[in-house]
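Journal club prep, notes for RB
We'll compare a predicted complex against what the paper describes. Inputs for the 2-phosphoglycolic acid case:
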Amino acid sequence: MGNVVRRILIVGNWKMNKTASEAAVFIREIAPRLPAAPAIDIVVAPPFTALESVRAALGPSSSIQLGAQNVFWESHGAYTGEISAPMLSDLGCRYVIIGHSERRTLFGEQDEGIRKKIRAALAHDLKPILCIGESLSQRERGQTDDVLRQQLKGGLADLSLQAMAAITIAYEPVWAIGTGKAATTEQAIAAHRTIRTFLSDTWSAEIANATRILYGGSVTPQNIDALLQSDQIDGALIGGACLQVESFARITTFAESIGACG
Ligand code: PGA
């Protein structure tokens, strides 16, 4: 499948943590700990309410990029409580997490809405990070690959080759999220292969080769190294371990050392 080098991407998903003031303090502490001109992409995804303070704390020349955790598919209008893609772009967001398992299970998000969100993000220059992953019972029933293919199809159906170039996939087994029980590197590699084969069969070998596939679910400074040793794993989506300066700095430093050897 050729040998495009995929740049490592580390995303900190803050979930519903940190006020705007706490976020600014965190960024001021962590920014000097991160590489100034990294060989990897580093994204922080704070809650909507902290986007502005994070942007201000990062300053205009930071190499850390801003992401959001969700987006609504309409641009504006009578949608009480929702946030649109142009609003996020205007705040300096470059990425948006879409279809996280917490959105799917706690807020009833389904493929059709996820697909619309991806299209809205793309239309406003936001790079979607589509989250997919099987539950424990689906894995135990041997349905992992089917679930992954279904969620990919559901979220990405009919996207053009050009649109696909902006997509990142995050493989996050539901049983690994916030449980301290990460997938093994072998389990992650197997899932990433399934995803890449689907991309190749549905779009092209070039798209499969160029698309970054992140692993997420209980990533820590202890297991990031082993995960990133595989050339199938192009980065990580990190929840709990991105909330402390020390652990997020360590993870990005490990990732940087691997990315710099390229
Ligand atoms: P975790 O969360 O690292 O706390 O398991 C990952 C995620 O939900 O994106």
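Talking point for the session: Strands lie at 9-13, 41-45, 64-68, 93-98, 127-132, 168-171, 212-216, 235-238.
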